[in-house]
Request: fold
Amino acid sequence: AGAAEVRVGMTAEKRAAPLILAVGSGKGGVGKSTLSTNLAVALSRAGKKVGLVDADIYGPSQARLLATEGMRPTAEGNKLHPVQSPWGLPLLSMGHLVQPGQAIAWRGPMAGNALGQLTDAIWGDIDLLVVDLPPGTGDVQLTMLQKHKPAGAVIVSTPQDLALMDATRAVQLFEQAHVPIVGLVENMAGYVCPHCGEESDPFGQGGAEAAARTMNLPFLGRIPLDLAIRQDSDAGRPPAAGEGPQADAFARIAQAVIA
Ligand code: ADP
Reply:
């Protein structure tokens, strides 16, 4: 009975700790949340059992992106049950831990504890937890990373020089926390005019790939600036769950992550 207990205990232990894949960015507004949602959906379409944690304390947006607004996680003992999104992803958000509109002056340790509540929830049988981190490279992020060490991190940047400089800082933050970088993703790269089809590069192109090469990191792919991505995301329909070039772009990044 003793050995069986130990085995059961080990299984429970193993289930409680799926691999964490963090998604970070040097600053806000570069598409970190959009990538987190769609990478999670694409990984799940590629056969992985995936959960999603929205740790963005400054602007949790996953409830909207995954059409789970108004849903509330239930608690069992001191653990949370994730919310089930209609897209087949279990989800827990920082937005679920605070009252809507409630302002919190987050400090590193507090945010670290809150992240623990989300990652150490009743996730059931999953392989991978995608964690949408807060943007930036401050204390809060560092504590989160040190306390709940991800197995790897994906960094999102736009092709702009400024965003790239910020992305370099994000790389350093992960390295400081001894989290291996899986690679860089360039978002909002290239724009196809929905009216005339002309291609332009409002934020330049290829910058993140060049930066990845300079830093000796894998480049995982690029997502174009595309009105349909914004519209579908706002409507709670992850583009990665559909068909067409948008879904393909996210699927390619998921394949690069798995590889
Ligand atoms: P972050 O999490 O980095 O703050 P978000 O993912 O919230 O950024 O994206 C900011 C805004 O840009 C959102 O309105 C989102 O829909 C939009 N967006 C993100 N990526 C793209 C893209 N590739 N094409 C069009 N709109 C995008």
Summary: Residues 1-14 have pLDDT under 50 and may be disordered. DSSP finds nine helices and eleven strands in the chain.
